[in-house]
Write a structure and sequence with these properties.
The complex is a heterodimer of chains A (234) and B (299). The termini of chain A are far apart. Chain A has 3 helices and 11 strands, in the order E-H-E-E-E-E-E-E-E-E-E-H-E-H. In chain A, strand 1 (5-9), helix 1 (15-27) and strand 2 (32-36) form a beta-alpha-beta unit. Helices cover 13% and strands 25% of the residues of chain A. In chain A, strands 1-2-3-4-5-6-7-8-9-11-10 form an 11-stranded mixed sheet, sandwiched between helices. Chain A is an alpha/beta fold and 234 residues long. Chain A has a single domain (35-233), classed as Pectate Lyase C-like (3 Solenoid), CATH 2.160.20.60. Chain B is an alpha+beta fold. Chain B has a 7-stranded antiparallel sheet. Chain B has a 5-stranded antiparallel sheet with strand order 9-10-11-12-16. In chain B, helix 2 packs antiparallel against helix 3, helix 5 crosses helix 6 and helix 6 (202-215) packs across helix 7 (220-230). Chain B is globular and about 50 Å long. Classes of the chains: A alpha/beta (234), B alpha+beta (299). At the A-B interface, loops of A face helix 8 and strand 15 of B.
Chain lengths: 234, 299
Amino acid sequence: MATLTSEIDCSAHTTREINQAIKRAAADGVPEIRLTNPAARHCLGVAVMSPIHVIFEGPVGWFCGGMSDGGRITVHGSCGWSVGENLMSGSIEVHGNGGSSAGATLRGGRVFVAGTTGARSGISMKGGTLVVGGSVGYMSGFMMQRGTMIVCGDAADGIGDSMYEGTVYVGGSIHSLGADCIEAELTDDDRALLATELDPHGISSTGIDWKKLVAGKRLWNFSKHEYDAWRGAL
Amino acid sequence: MCGLCGFVYKDAARTGGVGRVLHGMLLPMGRRGTDSTGIAMYGTPEDGSYVLRARIEANSGTPERVLETLERAGGVRDHAMDGPNLRARVAYDGDLGDLTDRVEAVPHVEVFSIGRSMEIVKEVGDANDVERSSPFAAFEGSHAIGHTRMATESVVDVAHSHPFWARPFPDISVVHNGHITNYHKLRRKLENQGHRFATGNDSEAIAVYIADKLAAGESLEDALRASVYDLDGTFSYLISTAEGIGCARDRFALKPLLYTENDEIAMIASEEVAIRSVDGDATLEPRELAAGEVRWWLR
């Protein structure tokens, strides 16, 4: 019978050894694996394809949890660029600040960053949910195609630039909207969704002036009569 | 891709093992740049002399000719050679551009830096290669910046390695990750003001650009803020002076840069892994600079 928890000291192993150990533990049916001293190394916990809970006791580097499908990753620390890049399903929770491109090309599952994230968070999202407890950087939600991004803090310049589809919610101030990103009316369904997504993280969604951002869809098809819209986007 | 790192003690009276810290930060940054590595470190000025760091790529009397030149310029207080690398303390009160020209008039000599407190060491290879050719890990000082280079547009040699001294301004140097697309225009403008360049590397122009503004009486904060608009292209850079460190990130946030600090120290790096490679305060929470953001720490 598999032990309930496996533990690895990252400082004694290469990144490849660590990731292979996670896969082995998942294949053996170990429900939880705890990794100490990750020391902000890159590519930890990538391609976790089984329902195992991976816990990093410290900061992780770039691409943490990328391409995973079905696992659950918790980071007790900060993370670098592109956390959860191309996540298919499962969840990643980061209890610290994130870097740029958080949740890039997210396809499914949930990425939660308790602190702030950098530029281009949620770039080219194709599904899933990205929740940022703090603020997001320049041009977040750029070319978003599907999915949901929830920003509890402020959005820097160019939020939702050239988004095709999907929805962005911003609780704080918006420095400027990106090209063809427009504000839509917040409905009761939106409020219910915000409560569903934020309550598990201990964040109250009430008493906040939520702004709902969607694609204006003026860039879907080229029109020579809307030259100004295209000039702004390009 | 290049790696940047910096460390500063905030208290003006405090010094410590900045060489050891930078060595630790530079090793993981070696993955961002394997071509060359360099450090600008700031010690305690001694008896009004300048510290000169230079590379002498020839033997048969060349080091002696350099020392004779320095002796004639004002006097050599002391000197040491580590292989081809010269460190000399020089008594001098003239223009540093003139002194640099006189030293480099000796064939096969490259001046890395001249400063009251700043010393630049660099080498092709990683931080351990620098440590072997110009030991710096035991250096005690107030602050330092470092760089690992992945060359994209100029040759891989020690002359084109970072940090770049903002010659002839004492104690100012820069490390840069990115590409300055208006480099030639910026360089022409600075050359028309009388500044000279030692290399064809775009990063050198940042150092001279900032130093020129500081010499004109601008604050480091104002110079950093102006640079975000005057420099085109992608960049994260650190600039160091005798007083501390400043940094800036381009308006598109295309190159990484983050910082962390407490009451005693500040650390800046391209990636958090550089910060975590040094034994220190594990509770420090790093934060990325926003697009176009500048920060500075003056002692």
